[in-house]
């Protein structure tokens, strides 16, 4: 696919080790804003075609073709059209956009400028989660530097800090939040392309998606498509976390496998073995040892019954209780449910009650069936994907580790899987009776 | 939802009347800057609530009134928004919010122990503040730093790879009034100062701290070690052949993308050929996309 031996292909990550990588000066030393100049010499429609032809699919999890999304905007009517970058990275396990924006905010700003030009937008927004203040500093400074250097022309870019709400990563909830409201999802259609921010045509794209545009403009669509697999083109950041020797960010062509990534990461932590993992955050169904060779592209992971999601590979070894892990994720979904629709609001509440019982070893005979029923009644019946996401770890957990849920009817998870065996810090808990 | 500014009678008193006059003057000036960033003034509400916290350390009743007056909203509308978001505080906050991630991955890697240790050490539960008003303890959801688990955030700055001992030491230093520096960020500022940044006002600390931590760079370092690179841009190859003397000369000796000349070796070229043949099979996909686009647009419009 790529240069014969290059398992990893740094594009977005390539300047992250440069001194003062976040500054305009450094970015320009690495060809920063060349793509913007080139794009401005290109017809807008040709840029949309370039992105369509590249096969780039949204890097925020859903994998919708980016150029296609842009092409959904209705013809210009003289009124404003908006680009909104979803920088609300909050999916458990996902940690790629935050380091990208901290190390190289200018690549995002350049991508915003190119995209804005391509779709005819004069005012773009970057909606950043509020809980990463240093990233906000870097983005504010990058926009200011680019503006002062005259790189943005008449384009306004507003970098907006959210205030703590996972649901705002859902694109229509994000738009409501950006309009100064509670972040609750909207009924679709209309889709944002038709009626988005302030009910105007709007493109909402993930950080990594937009940051991939400058290199694509310089390299061309065939260069981009030369990486990855036929239906999952390009490079992407894979984030390994948990029980691996060297957790961190690995940028590779889509289609790499967990086996390959684990090799680079020094394997599962010494003396332990892989038990379960998420391919793309906690909202993607769990996978196991048997999926080590699944190509990590959209089709490959879907074929294994999960989703590529955000390539957030959370690795858990054999010391970890699936019941405890799922229970904590359900705490999260229950906490973050916006309350707008009944299946998610009520369903996550009941899932939490049951999971807590199972974790304590106090589950009842009916609990497993109830779990399954509730999850099944949330999935596909909630207003947005958050509800589906809450059902996901339950259903995949039951599929692969049903015996652990059954054990929750008589034995606490902490007895079956003493938590101190999973932690990184030194403990003297071996002496404590389990 | 409306795209028009809500029409409202001018308030009988200037917004912020319940603040001391100098504070009110400053708040009004700052609010005008915030509102000017948006086509629709209501979009300013979230940053204005951060701004209120930069004065009061929480979303105070007088702050709610201020936001309502500035934006022409009712106080109930402002409160309804403020109570939706976890960063907005309903009671005075400590000088430092110490947030321990206890979402699954951090919890498993030690976050639960970290939370328990700090909680026991300070005698605090979730969302409680030490009597000296220095530390507010919180359980956090995932903060997008899983490769540094377990993670603690102090006033939304990263503290990576913490242990129960290091976290206890951290809160002790905060309570002693010592300056503490984030793993990837500056010396941690107090809650009010950070809230002002979150309202969109720069504080001059952007250049503090690194661009990236070790975990962020782990894949890139492996790539450097093995000389792994993304393929060179085809246009560079063409340009380079045409004008070798004046190729885009930004190579700093590190990266494949930049070292245009080096990519011209025959072995590199041969390696690129299979990818070109792969590309050759691709044009059917954009055609499909076009067809789908037309279909969908036909349905949508």
Automatic annotation (TrEMBL), chain A:
Its EC number is 7.1.1.-. Its cofactor is FMN; [4Fe-4S] cluster. It is an enzyme of class 7 (translocase). Residues 323-368 form the NADH-ubiquinone oxidoreductase 51kDa subunit iron-sulphur binding domain. Coiled coil: none annotated. GO terms for molecular function: 4 iron, 4 sulfur cluster binding; FMN binding; metal ion binding; NAD binding; NADH dehydrogenase (ubiquinone) activity; NADH dehydrogenase activity; quinone binding. Keywords: 4Fe-4S, Flavoprotein, FMN, Iron, Iron-sulfur, Metal-binding, NAD, Quinone, Translocase, Ubiquinone. It holds the Pfam family Complex1_51K. One of its GO terms (biological process) is cellular respiration. It catalyses: a quinone + NADH + 5 H(+)(in) = a quinol + NAD(+) + 4 H(+)(out). NDH-1 shuttles electrons from NADH, via FMN and iron-sulfur (Fe-S) centers, to quinones in the respiratory chain. Belongs to the complex I 51 kDa subunit family. This is NADH-quinone oxidoreductase subunit F. It comes from Serinibacter arcticus.
TrEMBL record, chain B:
Keywords: 2Fe-2S, Iron, Iron-sulfur, Metal-binding, Ubiquinone. PANTHER family: NADH DEHYDROGENASE [UBIQUINONE] FLAVOPROTEIN 2, MITOCHONDRIAL, NADH DEHYDROGENASE UBIQUINONE FLAVOPROTEIN 2, MITOCHONDRIAL. This is NADH-ubiquinone oxidoreductase chain E. Residues 263-280 have a biased composition (Polar residues). One of its GO terms (molecular function) is 2 iron, 2 sulfur cluster binding. Residues 249-261, 289-301 have a biased composition (Basic and acidic residues). Gene3D superfamilies: Glutaredoxin, NADH-quinone oxidoreductase subunit E. It comes from the Bacteria. Belongs to the complex I 24 kDa subunit family. InterPro entries: NuoE-like, NuoE_dom, NuoE_N, Thioredoxin-like_sf. Its cofactor is [2Fe-2S] cluster. Residues 232-301 are annotated as: Disordered.
């Amino acid at each position: 696919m790529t240069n014969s031996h290059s398992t990893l292909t740094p594009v977005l990550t390539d300047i992250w080790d440069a001194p003062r990588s976040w500054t305009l000066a450094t970015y320009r030393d690495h060809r920063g804003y060349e793509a913007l100049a080139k794009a401005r010499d290109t017809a807008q429609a040709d840029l949309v075609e370039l992105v369509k032809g590249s096969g780039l699919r949204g890097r925020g999890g859903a994998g919708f073709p980016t150029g296609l999304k842009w092409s959904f905007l209705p013809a210009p009517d003289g009124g404003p059209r908006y680009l909104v970058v979803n920088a609300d990275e909050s999916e458990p396990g996902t940690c790629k956009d935050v380091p990208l924006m901290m190390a190289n905010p200018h690549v995002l700003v350049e991508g915003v400028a190119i995209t804005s030009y391509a779709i005819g937008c004069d005012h773009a927004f970057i909606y950043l989660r509020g809980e990463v203040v240093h990233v906000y500093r870097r983005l504010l400074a990058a926009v200011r530097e680019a503006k002062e250097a005259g790189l943005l022309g008449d384009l306004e870019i507003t970098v907006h800090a959210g205030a703590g709400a996972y649901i705002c990563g859902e694109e229509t909830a994000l738009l409501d939040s950006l309009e100064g409201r509670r972040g609750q999802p909207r009924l679709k259609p209309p889709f944002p392309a038709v009626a988005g921010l302030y009910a105007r045509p709007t493109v909402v794209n993930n950080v990594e998606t937009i940051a991939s545009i400058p290199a694509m403009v310089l390299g061309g669509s065939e260069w981009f498509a030369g990486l990855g697999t036929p239906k999952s083109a390009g490079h992407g950041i894979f984030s390994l976390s948990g029980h691996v020797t060297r957790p961190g960010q690995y940028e590779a062509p889509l289609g790499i496998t967990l086996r390959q990534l684990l090799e680079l990461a020094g394997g599962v932590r010494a003396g332990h073995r892989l038990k379960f993992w998420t391919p793309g955050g906690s909202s993607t169904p769990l996978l196991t040892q048997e999926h080590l060779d699944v190509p990590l592209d959209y089709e490959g992971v879907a074929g294994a019954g999960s989703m590529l999601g955000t390539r957030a590979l959370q690795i858990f070894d054999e010391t970890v209780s699936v019941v405890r892990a799922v229970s904590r994720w359900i705490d999260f979904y229950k906490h973050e449910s916006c309350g707008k629709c009944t299946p998610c609001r009520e369903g996550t509440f009941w899932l939490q009650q049951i999971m807590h019982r199972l974790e304590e070893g106090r589950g009842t005979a009916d609990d497993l069936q109830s779990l399954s029923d509730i999850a099944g009644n949330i999935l596909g019946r909630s207003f947005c994907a958050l509800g589906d996401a809450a059902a996901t770890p339950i259903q995949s957990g039951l599929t692969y580790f049903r015996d652990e849920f059954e054990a929750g009817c008589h034995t606490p998870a902490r007895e079956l899987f003493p938590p101190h065996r999973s932690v990184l810090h030194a403990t003297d808990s071996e002496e404590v009776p389990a | 939802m409306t795209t028009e500014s809500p029409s409202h009678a001018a308030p009988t008193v200037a917004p912020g009347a319940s603040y001391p006059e100098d504070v009110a003057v400053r708040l009004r000036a700052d609010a005008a800057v915030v509102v000017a960033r948006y086509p629709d003034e209501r979009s300013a509400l979230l940053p204005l609530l951060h701004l209120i916290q930069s004065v009061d350390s929480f979303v105070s009743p007088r702050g709610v009134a201020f936001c309502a007056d500035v934006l022409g909203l009712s106080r109930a509308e402002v409160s309804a928004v403020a109570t939706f978001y976890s960063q907005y505080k309903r009671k005075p906050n400590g000088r430092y919010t110490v947030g321990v991630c206890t979402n699954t991955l951090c919890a498993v890697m030690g976050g639960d122990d970290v939370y328990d240790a700090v909680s026991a050490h300070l005698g605090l539960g979730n969302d409680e503040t030490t009597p000296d008003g220095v530390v507010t303890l919180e359980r956090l959801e995932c903060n997008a730093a899983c490769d540094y688990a377990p993670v603690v955030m102090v006033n939304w700055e990263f503290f990576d790879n913490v242990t129960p001992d290091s976290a206890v030491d951290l809160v002790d230093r905060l309570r002693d009034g010592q300056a503490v520096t984030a793993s990837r960020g500056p010396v941690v500022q107090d809650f009010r100062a950070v809230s002002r940044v979150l309202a969109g006002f720069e504080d001059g600390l952007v250049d503090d701290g690194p661009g990236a931590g070790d975990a962020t760079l782990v894949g890139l370092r492996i790539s450097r070690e093995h000389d792994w690179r993304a393929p060179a841009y085809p246009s560079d190859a063409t340009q380079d052949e045409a004008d070798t003397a004046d190729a885009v000369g930004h190579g700093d000796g590190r990266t494949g993308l930049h070292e245009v000349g080096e990519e011209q070796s025959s072995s590199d070229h041969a390696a690129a050929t299979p990818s070109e043949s792969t590309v050759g099979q691709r044009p059917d996909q954009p055609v499909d996309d076009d067809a789908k686009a037309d279909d969908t647009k036909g349905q949508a419009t």
